[in-house]
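Methods — Computational structure assignment.
A single polypeptide chain was analysed. Its primary sequence is given first, followed by the predicted tertiary structure written as structure tokens.
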Amino acid sequence: MHRNDTYRHCPLCGQELVKKQIKKGERKRLVCSCCQYVFYIDPKIAACAIIEIKGGIVLLKRGIPPALGSWVIPGGFVDAGETVPGAAIRETKEEVCLTIDIGPLVGVYSYPGSSVIIIVYEAAVTGGSPKAADETLDVRIYRPSEIPWNEIGFTSTKDALSDYLRRHYPGTVPAKFPDHSA
């Protein structure tokens, strides 16, 4: 289901939203049948961190859907008024009990049909020790050659890890993953 299929009423006047082409060449948008308010479906932004400890990458096992029980890097949605790096710092603390400093950008990931844009940074640990916390079943540190690729939860996690490893550990990424560094 696409996100725009879930909205049925105008947030201003409560009347029915209808799909309507506003400008020639653009896709149809949700428009109020009464007040003509255009209800734009904007993407959500997620911020993530790739954290290395003693030559291994911190991965967490998700304790909530989607991808319940799969391995991912720490991260989550950016709150309104929060910076993207600030969200990566907050989410890392909430999920794996680590305090981090944000480093270089690994990449920005978006996919057709998805309403989420994922921004991934390298990060360095400044405090704490990795342990399962909010929304997390387990935390492990995987050497690059030991990453459980078949148990990774999101395409963006696979893509970001692939890009990071190609940059720092050439030859450790399975051939089936595309190179996003170009």
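Note: Helices lie at 84-96, 155-168.
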